[in-house]
Design brief:
Radius of gyration: 15 Å
Number of helices: 6
Structural class: alpha+beta
Helix content: 25-40%
Largest sheet: 3 strands, antiparallel
Order of helices and strands: EEHEHHEHHEHEE
Distance between the termini: 28 Å
Strand content: 5-15%
Length: about 160
């Protein structure tokens, strides 16, 4: 699994791209924002994907990301979901006082730093695995590596 992470000059991650996206990384965005590839962070992300516990706290700052205030609320709430647990879009919405569950899904789909902001831990109200930029196979793998049981694309709780 190839993964690319781009950081600013202060080594704060600004974007993460999965294998399926790497050929479409906009070079003008990387150049304009003076980003550089973060090889060390890429190694940590791969460790995490393979089931190791990694603390990413020092690698990101939500205030530096090009996101809306609503997206920031969604991401802050998503960051509260502990390893090995999941929340539904509805639960995220209730916690941020929003009934815009589709808007929450759209915000998570735009998440510039997936895995670090663990959008893979957000599932449908029916406990079904739903969209993830890295693909549902990767979402399932991440959740299983965190100790969750999944059967027929549903999280067993």
């Amino acid at each position: 699994m190839e993964i690319k992470a781009y950081c600013n000059k202060n080594n704060k991650v600004m974007n993460i791209f999965f294998e399926s996206e790497i050929n479409n990384i906009p070079p003008e965005k990387i150049k304009k924002n003076e980003l550089k590839e973060c090889k060390n962070l890429e190694k940590l992300l791969k460790k995490y994907i393979n089931g190791k516990e990694v603390n990413f706290k020092k690698y990101y700052d939500l205030n530096l990301l090009n996101i809306t205030e609503f997206e920031k609320k969604v991401y802050k709430e998503t960051l509260k979901i502990p390893r090995g647990k999941v929340k539904t879009y509805k639960e995220i919405g209730e916690n941020i006082n929003s009934k815009g569950y589709r808007a929450i899904g759209n915000a998570l789909n735009k998440n510039p730093i997936p895995i670090i902001i663990p959008c893979h831990r957000v599932i449908g109200s029916n406990k079904k695995l739903t969209g993830f930029r890295g693909g549902l196979t990767m979402k399932k793998k991440l959740l299983e590596k965190e100790g969750l049981k999944i059967k027929n694309e549903k999280v067993i709780i």
